[in-house]
């Protein structure tokens, strides 16, 4: 049992003052602005938004500033703030096919329909420290001179031509894409489309798509999606229909934890041998049906990273085929999107009738330990005063030692006595 | 709240086709207003005010911040799931003289001013006497700005379009 302590108010207040002072640092250094954090430390902001499960770059930047760069602390702050807000609505599912892509790559198809765009990336850099960043370099007015090359034009044309044939069929219930004068982002086909057509990719989710087009997805289906912020987690959570809930938990899980899980499966603690079928990053429109209106309304664009990994399947649940893992994360966060898709696939072990050989295949292990607000709260609480618990522990140890010593003594005495009787007996004999 | 919204969102089969057209157009207008920067909205409201065309309005709701649960689909096209929440600001207004017109503004982020301007412009755009002016002077400005943003973003990433070549390795030639 935890017994609380009292007192220490003055010291605690002083400690918090000191923290504020250290966060600000020496006064001759200019203070960080939120826009500086939001734009120059964007990866930190994106990570905080994803793991706090709240998309709002400004507040994430504020949380990072307040936490003096401790990202997990910032995540905690933003997660806590989230609980103070009412929920207005739930969005219609994002149409990531219509993402305005700033990056799109595939490790399986060299000639991807629609082309591969590297976008901004750390890949292929040499990881050498750039000493030129030491000084305060002035901002380059044309940081990325846009080359009006033939390639560039071809890409623009490709995107436009892809838009037109898709338009009539894509005018579904949610999106009005068939309008003349209003600019809409083009729809780009998925890399795995051809595999699906050929039947080499598992059919589970494409079947769902056909079902959806046949019978319009109604309010009940959407309202019935499991939500970990409203419904408790029910273990073992390993059925195919638990996948949406697992994905929600993975989307807010700690990036480092997911990375470790994904790595463990690749090293052999699990049965995932993934290829990156497609990785996309960009802005995607978000629509809701607000209370006041009876039609969907676009409320803005969100930046997301989406990753589909495919891995071979030679088990018994399906014919030999490729199976898919999916990752979707707020902001620019490829490492996490990729790790999420591998972890998602690994967690489908039971559905796929695979032998469980690693922790990444165990939903209880992954889902219950991946949340860093939970984890850091539980691990860090042991810093707080536990004087009474510890006294209890200490007295228990003392009792045990005493008991053991007594026992040993008694044993020695008994032994000596027995020996004594034996010897005396022997003497008698 | 959420399920009610969706019940209301079921296809309105009983409504006349021209009504759904009007709804469709309004949805497109709202989209332009939500995706716009605040500056052109402000400039347009100022110009309406100068021409004496800006009526008074009352706040029916907000502006207030809240959450929207963002959903994705497995594989981009499969079963829906919850990704996480996003902060939104909403605002609803009624015109002082025409109480039956409700303007509605929902925008991502903490942007009370944007949400209110969106709601006011939505309300005014529904007025038959103002709609032609909006169609002529606001719609093309916003559509052009959006198109320009699309072009700029696309051009920037297009410079990084890549063509990979697979290399034939020595041990493969047989």
Q: What coarse outline of chain A follows from CA principal-axis ratios?
A: globular
Count of distinct strands of chain A: 7
- Main sheet overview of chain A: 4 strands, antiparallel
Form type of chain B: elongated
Structural class of chain B: alpha+beta
User: How is the largest sheet of chain B built, in terms of strand order?
Assistant: 1-2-3
Strand order of the largest sheet of chain A: 3-5-6-7
Largest interface: A-B, 105 and 76 residues
Q: Which class of secondary structure composition applies to the elements of chain A?
A: alpha+beta
Helix tally of chain A equals 15
- Assembly state of the chains shown: heterodimer
Instruction: Quickly count the domains of chain A.
Output: 2
Percent helix of chain A: 40-55%
Secondary-structure element series of chain B: HHHEEEHHHE
Mean pLDDT of chain B: 85
**Domains of chain B (count):** 1
Query: Could you give a short account of the major beta sheet of chain B?
Result: 3 strands, antiparallel
Number of helices of chain B: 6
C-alpha Rg of chain B (nearest Å) = 22 Å
Estimated helix fraction of chain B: 40-55%
Give unreliable regions of chain A as ranges.
Answer: 148-152, 155-179, 425-429
Overview of the molecule:
The complex is a heterodimer of chains A (429) and B (174). Chain A has 429 residues and is of the alpha+beta class. Helices cover 45% and strands 13% of the residues of chain A. Chain A has a four-stranded antiparallel sheet. Chain A starts with 8 loop residues before the first helix and ends with a helix. The relative contact order of chain A is 0.12. Chain B is of the alpha+beta class. Chain B has one domain (19-154). In chain B, strands 1-2-3 form a three-stranded antiparallel sheet. In chain B, a hairpin with a 6-residue loop joins strand 1 (57-73) and strand 2 (80-95). The chains are: A alpha+beta (429), B alpha+beta (174). The interface between A and B is large, with 105 and 76 residues. Strand 4 of chain A pairs antiparallel with strand 4 of chain B, so a sheet runs across the interface.
């Amino acid at each position: 049992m935890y017994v609380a302590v009292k007192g220490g108010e003055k010291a605690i207040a002083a400690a918090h003052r000191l923290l504020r002072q250290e966060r600000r640092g020496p006064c001759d250094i200019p203070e960080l602005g939120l826009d500086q954090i939001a734009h120059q430390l964007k990866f930190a902001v994106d990570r905080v938004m994803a793991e706090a499960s709240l998309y709002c770059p400004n507040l994430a930047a504020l949380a990072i500033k307040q936490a003096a760069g401790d990202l997990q602390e910032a995540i905690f702050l933003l997660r806590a703030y989230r609980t103070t807000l009412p929920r207005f609505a739930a969005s219609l599912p994002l149409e990531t096919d219509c993402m305005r892509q700033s990056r799109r790559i595939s490790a399986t198809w060299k000639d991807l329909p629609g082309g591969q765009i590297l976008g901004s990336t750390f890949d292929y850099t040499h990881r050498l420290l750039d000493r030129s960043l030491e000084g305060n370099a002035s901002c380059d007015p044309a940081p990325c001179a846009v080359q009006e090359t033939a390639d560039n034009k071809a890409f623009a044309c490709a995107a436009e031509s892809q838009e037109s044939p898709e338009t009539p069929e894509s005018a579904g219930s949610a999106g009005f894409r068939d309008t003349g004068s209003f600019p809409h982002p083009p729809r780009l086909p998925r890399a795995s489309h051809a595999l699906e057509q050929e039947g080499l990719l598992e059919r589970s989710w494409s079947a769902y798509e056909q079902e959806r087009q046949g019978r319009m997805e109604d309010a009940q289906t959407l309202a019935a999606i499991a939500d970990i912020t409203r419904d408790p987690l029910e273990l073992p959570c390993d059925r195919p229909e638990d996948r949406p809930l697992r994905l929600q938990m993975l989307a807010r899980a700690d990036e480092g934890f997911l990375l470790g899980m994904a790595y463990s499966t690749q090293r052999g603690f699990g049965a995932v041998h993934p290829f990156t079928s497609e990785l996309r990053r960009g802005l995607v429109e978000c629509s809701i049906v607000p209370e006041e209106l009876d039609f969907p309304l676009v409320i803005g664009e969100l930046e997301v990273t989406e990753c589909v990994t495919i891995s071979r399947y030679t088990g018994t649940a399906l014919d030999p085929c490729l199976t898919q893992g999916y990752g979707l994360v707020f902001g620019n966060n490829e490492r996490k999107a990729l790790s999420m898709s591998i972890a998602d696939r690994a967690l489908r072990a039971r559905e796929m009738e695979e032998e469980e050989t690693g922790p990444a295949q165990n939903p209880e292990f992954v889902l219950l330990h991946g949340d860093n607000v939970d984890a850091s709260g539980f691990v860090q609480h042991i810093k707080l005063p536990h004087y009474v618990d510890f006294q209890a522990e200490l007295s228990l140890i003392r009792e045990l030692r005493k008991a053991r010593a007594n026992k040993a003594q008694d044993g020695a005495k008994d032994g000596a006595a027995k020996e004594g009787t034996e010897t005396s007996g022997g003497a008698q004999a | 709240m959420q399920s009610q919204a969706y019940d209301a969102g079921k296809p309105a089969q009983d409504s006349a086709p021209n009504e759904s057209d009007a709804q469709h157009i309004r949805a497109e207008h709202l989209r332009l207003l939500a995706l716009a920067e605040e500056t052109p909205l402000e400039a347009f409201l100022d110009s309406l005010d100068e021409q004496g065309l800006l009526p008074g309005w009352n706040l029916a709701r907000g502006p207030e911040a809240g959450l929207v649960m963002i959903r994705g689909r497995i594989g981009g096209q499969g079963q829906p799931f919850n990704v996480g929440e996003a902060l939104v600001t909403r605002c609803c207004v009624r015109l002082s003289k025409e109480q039956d017109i409700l303007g509605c503004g929902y925008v991502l982020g903490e942007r009370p001013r944007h949400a209110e301007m969106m709601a006011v412009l939505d309300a005014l755009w529904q007025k038959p006497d103002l709609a032609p002016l909006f169609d002529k002077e606001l719609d093309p400005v916003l559509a052009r700005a959006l198109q320009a943003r699309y072009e700029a973003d696309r051009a920037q990433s297009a410079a990084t379009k890549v063509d990979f070549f697979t290399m034939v390795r020595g041990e493969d030639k047989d």
